[in-house]
Amino acid sequence: MKLARRLTLAGLLVAALLAGAAPGGTVAQEPTDAGTIKVGQILEESGYSYEKRAARVWTIPFEGKAFADFTVILSTSEDGQLLVIFVVLARKAEIQASAALWSTMLHFNDELDRVKVGIDPDQDAFVRIDLSTRIVDVAELKVNIEQLAASADEVYAALQPHLITSPPTNE
């Protein structure tokens, strides 16, 4: 059940990013759940330069040392109770799958605090943090975004020997 919910959420995130705005250039109908509204308000107060990409999806540009330009993506679940913050490190076509790659990724799952490192249903490599919108505030959001961005840069550097091409664009 939990896996099915996460896979559905991952599919919704991809669909939201690909769809962007609704026809006519307007953002899809605004959510009315408290969690999504709260995340939008917190982002306004956070000081980050962000873009609202869909009703439940926001993006923040970042620059790293190893991962030059990347996008942190934030999205709430349909019920607004879960906030997923993630970065796509590499697309499936860019990854040379090997035991060494999987070992590197598993190592980071143990080493990094709060952060999950994995492969999504589309076979893209990612780092992500899941938060309850009920308890998130500006300070907690900023700590988690910064942790995720630093982790994305660190994990990307370690994955480079296993990548075929340049980093993905999150557009």
Keywords:
Yope Regulator, Chain: A; 6-stranded antiparallel sheet; 171 residues; elongated; alpha+beta; disordered N terminus
Short description:
With 171 residues, the protein is α+β, with helices and mostly antiparallel strands. It is built from 4 helices and 6 strands, in the order H-H-E-E-E-E-H-E-E-H.
Give your account of this protein's structure.
The longest helix is centred in the last third of the chain and has 22 residues, at 138-159. A six-stranded antiparallel β-sheet has the order 1-2-3-4-6-5. Mean pLDDT is 86; it is low at 1-12 and 15-26. A hairpin with a 5-residue loop joins β5 and β6 (125-132). It has 171 residues and is of the alpha+beta class. It has helices at 2-19, 34-46, 99-111, 138-159; strands at 51-54, 57-63, 69-76, 82-90, 116-119, 125-132. α2 (34-46) crosses α4 (138-159). It has a single domain (2-162), classed as 2-Layer Sandwich (Yope Regulator, Chain: A), CATH 3.30.1460.10. It is elongated and about 45 Å long. The protein is built from four helices and six strands; from the N terminus they run ααββββαββα.
Number of helices: 4
Which spans of ≥5 residues are poorly predicted at pLDDT below 50?
Answer: 1-12, 15-26
Task: Give the percentage of residues in beta strands.
Answer: 15-25%
Average pLDDT across residues? 86
Which fold does the CATH topology refer to?
Yope Regulator, Chain: A
Structurally, the number of domains stands at: 1
Structural class: alpha+beta
Radius of gyration: 16 Å
Beta strands, count: 6
* CATH hierarchy: architecture: 2-Layer Sandwich
Helix content, binned percent = 25-40%
- Could you tell me how far the N terminus lies from the C terminus, measured between alpha carbons in angstroms? 30 Å
H and E order: HHEEEEHEEH
Q: Characterize the overall form.
A: elongated
Largest β-sheet summary: 6 strands, antiparallel
CATH class: Alpha Beta
Spatial order of strands in the largest sheet: 1-2-3-4-6-5
